[in-house]
Amino acid sequence: xxxxxxxxxxxxxxxxxxxxxxxxxxxxxxxxxxxxxxxxxxxxxxxxxxxxxxxxxxxxxxxxxxxxxxxxxxxxxxxxxxxxxxxxxxxxxxxxxxxxxxxxxxxxxxxxxxxxxxxxxxxxxxxxxxxxxxxxxxxxxxxxxxxxxxxxxxx
Length: 155
What we know:
Layout: H1 6-24, E1 31-36, E2 42-47, H2 50-53, H3 60-72, E3 80-86, H4 90-98, E4 103-108, E5 134-136, H5 140-154
């Protein structure tokens, strides 16, 4: 499945709401939603919380993956889709692979830390035991504008 679905759009709109909330808390504005691919039922959502929790692992994706695994009672999320407002970094791409997520959809590329295409392509690396082809660019302009505004305000 290489094109976004209606469920992807719905989840990305929610992820953007979470990213806005993160920005209002002084966090880099990234939001993430994980849903069951077949039903569209959301099972976890999170926003960046690195600053608030003083946690270098507090990225939206890692937090949402932990919540989704807990909600499912299983660390294998192969029948789920992760939707996130910014291209996953190396740490988050590793967590996505380890959780065996079936689909990944992201909005904006991250030219400084992206590990799904910009700097690395960990999600599709044939040397790893799980691969997932990301769908990129869904509501990219909205996410990029939010990120630009956040960083411009901090300069």
